[in-house]
Structures are given as structure tokens and as C-alpha cells.
């Protein structure tokens, strides 16, 4: 990632499992926190008007995260289709040590039809401008 959107994430005590490291299922929540921040700051949108659903989620783990780790999640939109977009994530601790990577594919859904629909032009333009992707 060249210049990703980055969010610091607080590791909470209840994120830990019996081995005292972050449970693997919690990582999806960390990706969601970063996505929501991206939604607010880059797309200038909110959850009420952002009608995308996660269609695919992949995570790869490199080392456990503990309660004392300072965790950051970097993300960038890597692909922008007609009705979907793909985001890549890199989770790091401390001085930038990578602990996990992830990827989500989001599909825009028409709220009335409950079916995939074209990404709104304003969202498309903001993603293209921020990420430097070509239309």
C-alpha cells in the first residue's frame, strides 16, 4: 500500500480469547471500524445512506495481537466495478509490524429492490479521486 487510509483501533479486553490474544473473529470488526471511518472521511457519507453489503471477506493472520499492542488498520480500495468495490487491509502494530491482512468485496444494493445496483456516481467519483484509480 502506497498511501493508505489508516485508522488506529483500540484493542479491548473483551476482544481477547483464552490465550490472551485477539480472537480471530474480532478482526472482521476491526476491518469494519476502518471501513466506517473511510465512509465518513473519504466518501463523506453515513451508515443510513451507504447501502453496501459485505459479499466476501478474507483474512490472513501473521502473529497474535495482544491487549498491549497499538493496532492500526490501513485500507485502500483496490478495485471498483459497476456494482461492487474491493478493499484491501493491512493491520499493523507498534512500529509498523504487519500482523494480518484482509480483503472485502462490498456490493451496492438498491434499498427498495434489495438487489445489486450500480454504485452511485458521487461515491464512484470520491473513490476514484481519493484512490487515484482509473474509471
Characterise this structure:
By secondary structure, the chain is of the alpha+beta class. The chain has one domain (5-131): Thiol Ester Dehydrase, Chain A (Roll). It is built from 2 helices and 6 strands; from the N terminus they run βαβββββα. Strands 1, 2, 3, 4, 5 and 6 form a 6-stranded antiparallel beta sheet that branches. The longest helix is centred in the first third of the chain and has 16 residues, at 26-41. The two termini are 20 Å apart.
How is the secondary structure organized here?
Elements: E1 5-9, H1 26-41, E2 52-61, E3 71-80, E4 84-93, E5 97-110, E6 115-116, H2 121-131
Antiparallel strand pairs: 1-3, 2-5, 3-4, 4-5, 5-6
Write a concise keyword list for the protein shown above.
2 helices, 135 residues, Thiol Ester Dehydrase, Chain A, single chain, alpha+beta, globular
Structure, briefly:
With 135 residues, the protein is α+β, with helices and mostly antiparallel strands.
Number of domains: 1
Residue fraction in strands: 35-45%
- Describe the largest sheet: 6 strands, antiparallel
Helix content: 10-25%
Rg calculated over all Cα atoms: 16 Å
Which CATH class is shown?
Answer: Alpha Beta
**Quaternary structure state of the chains depicted:** single chain
Using the 3D structure, state the CATH architecture: Roll
Amino acid at each position: 500500500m502506497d498511501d493508505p487510509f489508516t485508522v488506529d483501533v483500540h484493542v479491548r479486553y473483551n476482544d481477547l480469547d483464552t490465550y490472551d490474544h485477539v480472537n480471530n473473529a474480532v478482526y472482521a470488526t476491526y476491518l469494519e471500524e476502518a471501513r466506517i471511518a473511510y465512509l465518513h472521511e473519504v466518501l463523506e457519507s453515513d451508515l443510513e445512506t451507504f447501502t453496501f453489503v459485505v459479499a466476501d471477506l478474507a483474512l490472513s493472520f501473521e502473529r497474535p495481537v495482544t491487549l498491549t499492542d497499538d493496532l492500526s488498520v490501513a485500507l485502500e480500495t483496490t478495485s471498483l466495478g459497476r456494482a461492487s468495490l474491493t478493499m484491501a487491509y493491512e493491520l499493523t502494530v507498534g512500529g509498523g509490524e504487519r500482523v494480518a491482512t484482509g480483503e472485502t468485496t462490498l456490493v451496492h444494493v438498491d434499498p427498495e429492490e434489495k438487489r445489486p445496483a450500480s454504485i452511485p456516481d458521487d461515491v464512484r467519483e470520491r473513490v476514484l479521486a481519493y484512490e487515484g484509480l482509473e474509471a
